[in-house]
C-alpha cells in the first residue's frame, strides 16, 4: 500500500485522538457555566463596594380602610304612569326620554264621554235637590197638623221618611258629580314626580282599559340609590377585626359613600349608607346594602353599573409601605430592612390591602424599621449595604370624604 493511502486511513483515528485530548477541558468549562447560571457557583468579585439602597422609616398610624364593591344605580322613586279610566288615548304631550316636572301633562284621553257623564250627574243632582225641596215643604206642613191630631200618624211618618230619602238622594247625587269630575280630571294624565320619562308604551288612538293601562315610567333622579352586595365572608372577617380591636368602624354605621363611574372617573357628589339587609340571601351568600346620594345634575341614570367605595373605617396601628418595596416571590411577599449594623435583613410580610400605590402591612414590620424602598432586588441577608438616600416617613393623609362637609341630601330633584 502506498504512503498516501496509509495517511488517509490514519486521519480519522487522529481526529478522534484530538477530541479525546480536549474533552476534559470542555467538561470543566461547561460545568462552570452551568454552576454560574444556577447561582451555585461563586461569581468573581467585582469590587468591595456594598450595594446602594434607599430607605424609609416605618411609622405606625391609623390607616383608612376603603372597601370597594360593584353596584347598580336605581331610581329612588320610579313611578308607573297608568290610565285610571277607560277611554281612547287622544294625545301624547311630552317628549320621550326627556325630563318632566311634577304635575306636567303627559297624556290626554278623549274628554267628551266624561264631560257628558258629568252633565248627567249634575242633572241628577238638580233633580234630587228638587225632590228634597218638595219633601221638606210637605214635612213642614204635616208636622203641625200631626201635633193637633189633624192627620194620622202614618201621614206624618211618610212625610218624614220622604224628606230623609230625598236628602239621601241629594248626597248620592253629589257623590256622583264628584266621581264624574274625578273621571274627567283623570283624562289629563300628569306626572306625579319630577324625573326622567321613558318612552310611550301605547300609540295615540289606542283604547285603554284596566288590562291595557300602562303608558310609561317616570324615574326620579335625585336622590339616586346605589344597590350593592356584601359577601358573608367579608362581613364576618370585618366583624371579627372590629371585635379584636384591629379595626374601628364608624359610629352607628355612618359610612360615607363614593361612586366611581365605568370610565374610572369619580362622581362629584358623595352620599350615605342608608340601608343594610338584616338577612343573607341563600342564593348568593350575600346581603343587600343601599346608598343614596344627590344627583341634582342628573349625571347618574338608573341601571348603571358603578363601583362603590365605603369610607369611615380605620385599621388601628397600621403600617403603609410603598408597593415597590415589597418583593413577591414563590415563598410569599417579603421586604428588606437595614438593621443597626448597616446590614440587610429579610422580613416576610402579610399584606392586608392596597391603598393607592401602597400596601397596608398587617404583619412583618414594626415602627422604627428602616425599610429598603429601592435597591432590594440585589440584596441578600446579612450583606452590608450603603444607604444613599433616606425618604421622609410616610404619613397617611386624612380621608378627604370624612373631613369634607356632609353632602346635602335634601337637594331638589333634577329638572
Automatic annotation (TrEMBL):
Q: Which part of the chain is the Multidrug resistance protein MdtA-like C-terminal permuted SH3 domain?
A: 317-376
Q: Where in the cell is it found?
A: Cell envelope
> What domain of life does the native source organism fall in?
Bacteria
Biological process GO annotation list?
Answer: response to antibiotic
Gene3D superfamilies the record matches: 2.40.30.170, 2.40.420.20, 2.40.50.100, Helix hairpin bin (1.10.287.470)
Sequence ranges assigned to domain Multidrug resistance protein MdtA-like barrel-sandwich hybrid in this UniProt record: 77-209
The UniProt GO MF terms for this protein read: transmembrane transporter activity
Q: Name one GO cellular component term.
A: cell envelope
**InterPro entries, A to Z:** MdtA-like_b-barrel, MdtA-like_BSH, MdtA-like_C, MdtA-like_HH, RND_pump_MFP
Q: Which residues does the UniProt record annotate as the domain Multidrug resistance protein MdtA-like alpha-helical hairpin?
A: 117-187
Signal peptide residues are none
Q: Which residues form the Multidrug resistance protein MdtA-like beta-barrel domain?
A: 223-311
Q: Which family does it belong to?
A: Belongs to the membrane fusion protein (MFP) (TC 8.A.1) family.
What name appears for this protein in its UniProt entry?
Answer: Membrane fusion protein (Multidrug efflux system)
Amino acid at each position: 500500500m502506498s504512503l498516501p493511502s496509509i495517511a488517509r486511513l490514519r486521519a480519522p483515528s487522529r481526529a478522534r485522538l484530538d477530541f479525546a485530548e480536549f474533552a476534559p477541558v470542555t467538561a470543566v468549562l461547561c460545568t462552570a457555566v452551568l454552576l454560574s447560571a444556577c447561582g451555585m457557583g461563586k461569581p468573581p468579585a467585582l469590587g468591595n463596594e456594598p450595594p446602594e439602597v434607599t430607605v424609609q422609616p416605618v411609622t405606625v398610624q391609623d390607616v383608612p380602610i376603603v372597601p370597594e364593591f360593584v353596584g347598580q344605580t336605581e331610581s329612588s322613586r320610579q313611578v308607573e304612569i297608568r290610565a285610571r279610566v277607560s277611554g281612547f288615548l287622544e294625545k301624547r304631550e311630552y317628549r320621550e326620554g326627556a325630563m318632566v316636572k311634577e304635575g306636567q301633562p303627559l297624556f290626554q284621553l278623549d274628554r267628551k264621554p266624561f264631560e257628558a257623564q258629568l252633565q248627567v250627574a249634575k242633572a241628577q243632582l238638580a233633580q234630587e235637590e228638587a225632590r228634597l225641596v218638595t219633601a221638606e215643604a210637605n214635612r213642614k206642613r204635616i208636622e203641625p197638623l200631626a201635633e193637633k191630631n189633624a192627620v194620622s200618624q202614618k201621614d206624618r211618618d211618610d212625610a218624614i221618611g220622604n224628606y230623609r230619602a230625598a236628602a239621601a238622594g241629594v248626597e248620592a247625587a253629589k257623590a256622583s258629580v264628584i266621581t264624574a269630575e274625578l273621571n274627567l280630571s283623570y283624562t289629563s294624565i300628569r306626572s306625579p314626580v319630577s324625573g326622567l320619562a321613558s318612552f310611550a308604551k301605547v300609540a295615540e288612538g289606542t283604547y285603554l282599559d284596566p288590562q291595557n293601562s300602562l303608558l310609561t315610567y317616570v324615574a326620579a333622579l335625585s336622590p339616586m340609590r346605589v344597590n350593592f352586595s356584601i359577601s358573608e365572608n367579608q362581613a364576618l372577617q370585618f366583624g371579627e377585626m372590629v371585635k379584636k380591636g384591629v379595626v374601628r368602624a364608624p359610629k352607628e354605621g355612618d359610612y360615607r359613600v363614593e361612586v366611581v363611574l365605568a370610565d374610572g372617573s369619580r362622581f362629584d357628589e358623595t352620599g350615605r349608607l342608608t340601608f343594610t339587609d338584616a338577612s343573607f340571601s341563600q342564593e348568593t351568600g350575600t346581603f343587600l346594602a343601599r346608598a343614596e346620594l344627590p344627583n341634582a345634575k342628573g349625571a347618574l341614570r338608573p341601571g348603571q353599573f358603578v363601583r362603590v367605595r365605603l369610607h369611615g373605617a380605620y385599621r388601628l396601628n397600621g403600617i403603609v409601605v410603598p408597593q415597590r418595596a415589597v418583593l413577591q416571590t414563590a415563598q410569599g411577599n417579603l421586604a428588606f430592612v437595614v438593621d443597626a449594623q448597616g446590614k440587610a435583613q429579610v422580613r416576610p410580610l402579610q399584606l392586608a390591602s392596597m391603598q393607592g400605590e401602597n400596601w397596608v402591612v398587617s404583619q412583618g414590620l414594626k415602627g422604627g424599621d428602616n425599610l429598603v424602598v429601592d435597591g432590594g432586588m440585589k440584596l441578600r441577608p446579612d450583606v452590608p449595604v450603603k444607604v444613599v438616600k433616606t425618604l421622609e416617613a410616610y404619613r397617611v393623609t386624612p380621608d378627604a370624604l370624612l373631613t369634607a362637609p356632609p353632602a346635602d341630601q335634601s337637594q331638589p330633584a333634577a329638572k
